[in-house]
Amino acid sequence: LGINIYHFNDKLAPQIGFPWSEINNISYSDKRFTIQTANKSPDFVFLTSKSRINKTILDLCIRNHELYIARRKPESPEVQQMKMQQIAERKERNDERMRLKKEREARIAAEHNQRVLEQKLMVIEQEQQASKKALLLYQAKSNELERKIHESEEQSRRLKSQREIAEQEMTQMESQLTTHIEEKEELKELYQSKEAFAMKTAIEVEQMQQKAEKLRQEYDNLQKKYSEEVLSRSMTGSVTSENSDPLEDTCSDGQDFITEIEGNRSEENRGLETSRDTLLHKKLKDMEKDLMLEKNFSALTDADHHYLSIQQQGEDKYKTLKKIRKGNTRQRVEDYEEMTSYRATEEVETAS
């Protein structure tokens, strides 16, 4: 998107930035590197320790600008045809994958049905075996009953002699039955009281469920309203596509290249995807909480601490880019030179 200048000890937040639309040409002479800006603004100049470093910087700028221009050129018919072919191949692969998935699911369902039928067959066989055992047991019991019938006939005489004793026992049982009836009435009353308490509790539970359902509906309405507000804000903050002019490099001892100025800097209005997708933002926050539990804070470097402080301030790369390009080019260059001179004065005073 352009050229950003960083401080030696801070490689996260750039001090000043120049978009490609504000750059006329870039050149170097020995250890002196010059950025010529548009709108009659002063040139931005800095020094390096070696001439080879300036050549490397210039090569990086040229390649970066070529990529910047290539991304904004309309696609050729050959590229469009290749993309359409890739889309068709991807669709064919997805169709084949779905077909295989359906076949696999059908095979799994058939195997499941076969296992169910085998289990049912096994159950039927077990029931048949159980019925055979029950039949044999019934025959044995019938024989035993016949034997007992004969024995009962022999014992009938003895039972007659014990009849009087049985009548006495019946009298005692009737008295005990009266006592049991009274206890049964008490248990019945206790049961009725418990049943009334259970019905009352059920009514209270139903009321609480209705109240909870009402609160859930209110929460869904609030969440829907909040999602609509976020969507309307993200639609209001959208910008047009970016356009820029190519750089023409004229390499001599200065390695110059020039570009026309159109002033299209719509890339500065871009934002993070999480600012538009609330579900993605929530998911990333949950993942961040899980990772913080496993993070080793003793192994963090100074750059890591600096990055965390920038992140806590709510800054991101798009906000930083917009911040360093605020105002016109002349004002940014003057502010940067004033800041560097003030910093150099502080370093001299500290050293003295």
Your description of this structure?
It is built from seven helices and seven strands; from the N terminus they run E-E-E-E-E-H-H-H-E-E-H-H-H-H. The protein is elongated, with a radius of gyration of 45 Å. The chain has a three-stranded antiparallel β-sheet, covered by helices on one side. Strands 1-2 form a two-stranded antiparallel sheet. It has a two-stranded antiparallel sheet with strand order 6-7. The two termini are 41 Å apart. The protein has 352 residues and is mainly alpha-helical. It is 68% helix and 9% strand. About 8% of the residues have low confidence.
Overall helicity = 55-70%
The helix/strand series, from N terminus to C terminus, equals EEEEEHHHEEHHHH
Number of helices: 7
pLDDT < 50 stretches? 237-263
- Characterize the largest beta sheet: strand count, sense, and whether it forms a barrel: 3 strands, antiparallel
- The first-to-last residue Cα distance is 41 Å
User: What amount of the residues lies in strands?
Assistant: 5-15%
**Mean pLDDT over all positions:** 77
Number of strands: 7
Strand order of the largest sheet: 3-4-5
Rg (CA only): 45 Å
The structure class reads: mainly alpha
Shape: elongated
